[in-house]
Amino acid sequence: MKEKLYFYYTNDLHSNFEQWPRVAAFIKESIAARNVRDNDYWLFDIGDHMDRVHPISEATKGKANIQLMNDLRYDVVTFGNNEGITLAHDDLYHLYDDAEFDVVCTNLHSSDNQNPLWLNRQVKLTSESGVRIGILGLTAPFNDYYHLLGWHISSAFDELDKYVHELSHETDIIVLLSHLGLSEDQEIARRYKDIDVIIGGHTHHLLRTGEKINNTIITAAGKHCSFVGEVILTWDHNQKKLINQEAYATDISEYENDTETEHKIMSLQEDAEQRLNYPIVYTDYPIEVRWFKNTKVMRELTNTLREFTKADIAMLNSGLLLDSLPAGKIAYKDVHRICPHPINAVTVELTGSEILEVIRVSLTKQFTEFQLKGFGFRGKVLGEMVFSGIEVVSNFHPNGEKYVKTALLPDGSELDANQTYKLGTADVFTFGRLLPEIAKSDTKHFFLPEFLRDLLVKTLEEHYS
Fold it and tell me: How far apart, in Å, are the Cα atoms of 218 and each of 113, 367, 402?
C-alpha cells in the first residue's frame, strides 16, 4: 500500500498581515481537500512570522502572531531572528506561552539554563497509519545579539550530529525546519542522508518545485507569504520506506481574502492603535524630516546615539526617519510609524583613516540614494549621513559629487589617521558591503534590546517637550 503525506508551510511573513487573509484562504481550502480525501496533513511555519515593523506585532510583542497561527491550527513552528533577537529575553521567553502548536528549535539555549516550557529539541508526529515523522528546527546563529539578550545558539551541525542519528532509529521520516538560509540547507543535505526534507527560510529564496540533493528535497516559499509551500511524501507500507518526495510553492496572489481572518486582523489593528497611542511629547511646531538634508531632529538623534553609546563620534543616515511629524501630540505610534526598523545601536573601533573612508563613501550620491532592502532597514533610501562629535567639511567636484575636505574634532583638531576612535552608528552597517570598514571591524559592540526608535523617544523628550 502506498500513502501520501501532506505538509503545508509558511515562511518569512515578516508581519505582512495584508497578505495573511489570502494565506488563510489557501490553507483552509487545501486542508478541506485533504479532509475530503481523508489524507494526513500538517501545517508548519519556518520563522520570521513576526516583524516589529508592523504596529500589531509591536504592540503585542509578537503575541498576535501566535493568535493568528492558533486560528489556522498550525502543528509545528520554529522561529527566526526576528522573533529571536528583536525581543527582550523575557518577551521571547513568554512569546509562545499561549501557542496551541509545538515549537521546535534544536539549537536555542537560555544562558541561565532555564529554558522556556514551550521549547522542544525535537517533535515526533505519527500518521493515522503509523508512519513516524521526526521534526527538527534550527535558527540562524546571531550570537553577537543572542548573548546580549541571555540566549545562545549552538552549532547547527553539532545538534544535527546528535539528533539526526537519534531520530534515524526512532522515526521513519525526518523533516528539518530550517531558518538558516539556502546555502546552509544545501550543505546539510550534502552531509546528512537521513534527512528527507528541509523546509527553509531566512534568505527569502523561492524554490517553486524544490531542489533535490542526495536523498533530501529542499524547499522554501520566498518572502512575505506571496507563496505558500506544500510537500508531498509518498510512503510505501510494503517496502517500509519513502519512495517519492515532491515540493511546490504556490502563488496565492489571486486568492480571495478569508473574511474571518480579515476581520480578526482589523480588530488586532484597532487594538494596536490604542495600545501605541500614548503620548511622548506635545510640540507647538512640526518636526521636519528630509532624507537628503541635515535636519535638527537627525542631528539631535545622532547626538543622543553618541551619548547613549559613549562613543567619540556618531553617525546616522537620514533615511532612518521616514516622515515628518506635525505639531501637537506625538504618540508612540507616530514614533513607530516614522522609525519602524528593528535596528539597534552599535559601536566599532576604527582608525581615523578608516573613519575618513567611511565618511567619504557616505557622502557619495550612490550611497545616499541607495535603496537598501533588508538588514533590518525598512525605509526607502539611505539618505544623507549626519554626524556627531565631528565636523565634516566638504565641497563639490565639478560633476556635482560631494567630497570630504577635512574632518575636525570638537577641539578644532583634525582626525588623527593612526589613532583609534569609538564610532557609534546603526547596526545595519555591520552587515553586507555598504561600509566595509565598519562591517569588517573586530570590535563590534551591540546595544540591546533598545531600538533606534527608543533613542528617538529619548531625543523627543529631551529636546522637543
Answer: 33, 36, 47
